[in-house]
Amino acid sequence: MAEINHKFVLASRPVGMARRGNWNYTESPVAAPADGEFLVKIIYISLDPAMRGWMNDGRSYIPPVAIGEVMRALALGRVVESKNPKFAVGDIVTGAFGVQEYAISNGMMVNKVPPIGIPLPVFLGTLGMTGMTAYFGLLEVGKPKAGDTVVVSGAAGATGGVVGQIAKIKGCRTVGIAGGPAKCEYIVKELGYDVAIDYKSEDLRKALGAACPKGIDVFFDNVGGEILDAALGQLAMRARVVICGAISQYNNTTPVKGPANYLSLLVNRASMTGMIVFDWAERYGEAAKEMAGWVAQGKLHARCDVHEGLHNYPEVFEKLFRGENNGKLMLKVCDEK
Amino acid sequence: MAEINHKFVLASRPVGMARRGNWNYTESPVAAPADGEFLVKIIYISLDPAMRGWMNDGRSYIPPVAIGEVMRALALGRVVESKNPKFAVGDIVTGAFGVQEYAISNGMMVNKVPPIGIPLPVFLGTLGMTGMTAYFGLLEVGKPKAGDTVVVSGAAGATGGVVGQIAKIKGCRTVGIAGGPAKCEYIVKELGYDVAIDYKSEDLRKALGAACPKGIDVFFDNVGGEILDAALGQLAMRARVVICGAISQYNNTTPVKGPANYLSLLVNRASMTGMIVFDWAERYGEAAKEMAGWVAQGKLHARCDVHEGLHNYPEVFEKLFRGENNGKLMLKVCDEK
User: Fold this and answer.
1) How many percent of chain B have pLDDT more than 90?
2) Which of B80, B135, B147 is nearest to B300 (CA)?
3) Are B256 and A260 an interchain contact pair (Cβ–Cβ within 8 Å)?
4) pLDDT higher than threshold 80 for residue A118
5) A129-278 has which fold?
6) Which residues of A touch B59 (CB under 8 A)?
7) Which end of chain B is less crowded, N or C, counting CB atoms within 10 A of the terminal residue's CB?
8) Measured between CA atoms, how close is B229 to chain A, in angstroms?
């Protein structure tokens, strides 16, 4: 009897927060790989804010997930059957395998995880797309110089946590914005941020002014909304604002709040630049190698927030938008073995 | 008996549109230049949107005009008395001489107008700060390549008119946004824009989509507000948005309208960069020389909208914000002789 593949399939496009009702939890027999393909048994599924955007119709940097299609997600799994000579049974691989238990792949955009003693979830976080986003967004778009003041929103989040640590490695002063005392303690004590600002309890503008007496040289924004506006109000001359995401705006049912302080770009001859990590795909290997070195040297800490059970996916995913995750959020779908 | 200098002195900081009551129209005896100084009899005063910003208190790229101080303005005049060996009586000069009939200067940031047969008002427009703004903002910040689609807001304005013409000289396709049929005709017939969009009568988003089937590569924004948002919605990949000004927002009594479509920067890996022309002061000479060549060759047309009479300054200045000027707005204060 064929094994069963459980999966979440997009049922409807959400208005506001994505809820369980926006997907169908269904099953089908596990497919057999055709020539050139292989079958992956998924172990960890990465839950990322960007997934909310993929559920919307309309033009974006990637086509939307179609109604009836398996929900798109990055994941890590083990090759359990292969008709592709480049991938052997037993290989651990990452790719856009979706919110399901098994995936068929032809190897496109799939990476092998090297056996270097780093825990597997880290390859979906610090050494995965999250880490690549932090690495290229900060270094290639933000272009920090030693001594610069780098401010990061969503600083306790998966991307923001890595950004702050890379900025420290590069000799910058780092200020992280996060929600609540636990996250603020985490980013200072575990991630090495110089200053944490709790946007839930502090006057953000005043706190940023106090934390950045010479202004902000690089602002790495994962959040948007009021936080982006507050940071724009404190830019140093020729500051670089990296627009990586806007989690505060993804579930809006009203229009996105544009940054009213955008004319600070003019006053300060500053720039605001959007980035999508896919543009650096050719350099992922180089970045992953450097970052794996930092992880091995204990310079780059990676906290993963792993939840169990594929069937819990919708509720675990919601945690991202309530800021309830502690580090890189992911689902564990089966044992590593 | 000493000659009298009439002048407009800042009386109060405006809320919303600047009105006559925000200045005092006063007079004082014409001062005598001290050693190293010279006296300028002002002929033309440049009226620019940026002047509205200089009337506001608070941190900006330049200190605000103080209450009781002569209103800051760029102007062109003739040296009528000199104790500075670098400036001789009869020299025609431009500088920040203010809204008055006579100014004392020590020569700092003052430029001599060469006798090359170009009408004097052009040195406050196309060959003045307006033209420098267009030149460096487009070429150095916008970085257009031949074949790019360049969209300009305020395209019939002093800066926008020059931007479109330089973009054509550089081999770009140009789309100008202006208000009303007369301005739209002007920018196509006199300034050579490929397409004009009348934001007052057309659906701006649809018209931009139709005019830019491959998207906008460079958006040069003088206006802000809804026009900036519409343009952000049509960016091509790796587009460059130049924030030169935001005339739609300068008289706001409510907060500035931030660009709700700013996440288009992310989707399109685009950038939005503010510019202040002063940063290129060392290269004004080089730019003026190249632009004077274009003027002489008939490639760069310069329409000046000259009004007579210093005492009319407040009402003429208001025309800028109602879009009633036709080309570079200026006041003529005395005859050229």
Assistant:
1) 88
2) B135
3) yes
4) yes
5) Rossmann fold (3.40.50)
6) 267
7) N
8) 9
